[in-house]
Specification:
Number of helices: 5
Largest sheet: 8 strands, mixed
Structural class: alpha/beta
Number of strands: 16
Oligomer: single chain
Strand content: 25-35%
Length: 278
């Protein structure tokens, strides 16, 4: 694959699965109309996110879907020739996971369970335990779910596994503890952009960042979907509004250009780094 159009969505999703599927279908149609080969939808696009991140109500959690739920198979059918990443709550039997799946008309291409859980999510979800990249028709992809991208090791693990594109699916709200009068002044809004650009630049990969919009319970979501190049430059963005950020990029050529002189992955010095300790 040479040049590909990548679309990252900013949109609102709630508990109504029928509504969510219809919105997913509309976004797939819009992305297809823009010539996109890859569409990254937000975290919790099927069933919505938690309504309270501090004290989640066990009786008001998102609907849990089995990995082979017919709804996910419907998204794959809608994707057809496109590659589509979408977030949902996974029914893992005795456990629930904040999860993402990447599909095309050929079926499931890759999966991810969110590894890093903020305090409130611990009461609602179990944590995943790995980061794996996978091959798709648009290139090798690795997925992150919102808080995962706060940790450089997450994206680095995927880059070392050969990921050329990082798909970051989020339900990322404005600051809950220190609300700002304007979105542009919000601490979480600044961090969201900072992490997107940093994770792309430090690994010299392309990053597609989606996010929810609107509100759920007492939370207001940021939007700010974007496509970031391997130099950390934002190629397209939605700001805080709902919509699609679409950018056309030759992933291999731009990655090679970014790594022409400085090759971050090759120039690491693992022997000098402190080993992970529990």
């Amino acid at each position: 694959m040479s040049t590909v159009r990548i679309a990252a969505a900013a949109a609102h999703f709630g508990r109504d699965l029928e509504f969510d599927l219809a919105r997913v279908g509309k976004l797939i149609d819009d992305a297809r109309g823009n010539g996109a080969g890859l569409l990254v939808l937000p975290d919790a696009a099927l069933g919505g996110y938690l309504s309270d991140l501090r004290h989640p109500d066990p009786q008001a959690l998102p609907p849990a879907l089995k990995p082979d739920d017919p709804l996910i198979l419907q998204v794959a059918r809608l994707a057809a020739e496109m590659v589509v990443c979408v977030g949902y709550c996974e029914d893992g039997g005795t456990e629930r996971y904040n999860a993402a799946v990447c599909v095309s008309g050929d079926g499931v291409l890759g999966r991810h369970r969110k590894v890093h859980l903020p305090a409130g999510e611990v009461a609602a979800y179990s944590a995943g335990d790995r980061f794996d990249a996978f091959d798709t028709p648009v290139g090798r992809i690795g997925m992150l779910i919102d808080y995962d991208k706060t940790f450089p090791e997450s994206a680095r693990s995927l880059a070392l596994d050969g990921a050329e594109i990082l798909a970051c699916l989020s339900a990322w709200p404005t600051s809950i503890t220190n609300r700002a009068p304007r979105m542009a002044q919000d601490r979480q809004a600044r961090l969201f952009d900072l992490y997107d650009q940093s994770r792309a630049a430090e690994n010299q990969v392309v990053l597609a960042s989606s996010n929810q919009t609107g509100a759920m319970g007492g939370m207001r979501f940021l939007g700010q979907a974007k496509v970031v190049g391997p130099g950390g430059d934002i190629l397209a963005r939605t700001w805080s509004k709902a919509g699609l950020a679409v950018a056309e990029i030759d992933v291999a050529a731009e990655t090679d250009r970014a790594r022409r002189v400085l090759r971050h992955l090759d120039e690491r010095r693992p022997d000098a780094y402190r080993e992970t300790r529990t």
